Amino acid sequence: MRKTLLLLSLTLLIAAIASLHLGVRLYGPATVWSAFSGGNDTADIIIRTLRLPRTLNAMATGAALAISGLLMQATTRNPLAEPGLLGVNAGAAFAVAFGLVLFGVVSVGAIGLLAVCGALAATALVFGLSAALGPQTGPTGILLIGVTVAAMLASLTQLALLLDETALETLLFWLSGGFADRPLALLWLGVLALTVALSGCALLGPSIDALRLDDHSAAGIGVDVARTRIAALALAALLSAGAVAMSGPVAFLGLIAPHIARRLSPGRPAFIGMAALAMLTGAIIAVLADILARLIVAPGEAPIGAVLAFVGVPFLIALLRAKRLREVGV
């Protein structure tokens, strides 16, 4: 486990350094060093004020979404659970869009608060509908409910923006998801959410480990299953809200990062260890995707959602196929 964590940390460091060098223009190590030594050339300003913030943003967003996805997959025992697929991202985006359209909300703190409220409300709606339908809903049913709620909220968001052209211009780029040109103040909101959630993961870790058993067995060894699940899902929603506030809705990262982390982990580590692996994995994927987004259509820039979908959609299909094969006993 320690070797894996060390290797992932080193990989993240290399990816972050590469992110400072690569883009529409390639800068050498001397230029990057000059930027952090107080240089005031154009290249120094670009590296310091554009590439560094977007790299930090990508790292924080990737880490937050990866842990959010891990929490959802662990507590629902659904390998397909992910903030985007369960409507959490759409809920946060819906709340931010309507806050801007109806109340003219533009401050950083208000956007973050709206994102948190929207994410929590969407989570409550999805799992409330699932509970109302009963135990027969199953993991696939929860996924279908989440996709339906996400589609509904996305449609309402688009409707709100069509009613206010100024809001559409303001939020169009944000709603597409991305790490560039984001205020650093929003980064602090995401980092705060990440810190709170990691503390919560440390406290809930043993109970979440017990949820690997069925609910009856977990309750038999003293775990309050309902309270643990609600607390974990609230943390997942908080992380997703922080990520949406920082970078807009970013899909698939919360799905693929936990699965890759599991394949990198030796044996079956405790949940807190898996959270550390997922956090590093998500940060690496986000930084690499951001670099790729700058390069594949240079001198333009591809939407980060499109880059992640290029990997995430085949990954989702593979997971669904593997689940189907297990069900038929192949």
UniProtKB/TrEMBL annotation:
GO terms for cellular component: plasma membrane. GO terms for molecular function: transmembrane transporter activity. It comes from the Bacteria. Gene3D superfamilies: ABC transporter involved in vitamin B12 uptake, BtuC. Keywords: Cell membrane, Membrane, Transmembrane, Transmembrane helix, Transport. InterPro entries: ABC_BtuC-like, ABC_transptr_permease_BtuC. It is a multi-pass membrane protein. One of its GO terms (biological process) is siderophore-iron import into cell. The chain crosses the membrane at residues 88-121, 141-163, 184-205, 230-257, 269-296, 302-320. The keyword Oxidoreductase does not apply. It is found in: Cell membrane. CDD domains: TM_ABC_iron-siderophores_like (cd06550). PANTHER family: FE(3+) DICITRATE TRANSPORT SYSTEM PERMEASE PROTEIN FECC-RELATED (PTHR30472:SF1), FERRIC ENTEROBACTIN TRANSPORT SYSTEM PERMEASE PROTEIN (PTHR30472). Belongs to the binding-protein-dependent transport system permease family. FecCD subfamily. This is Putative siderophore transport system permease protein YfiZ. It comes from Martelella mediterranea DSM 17316.
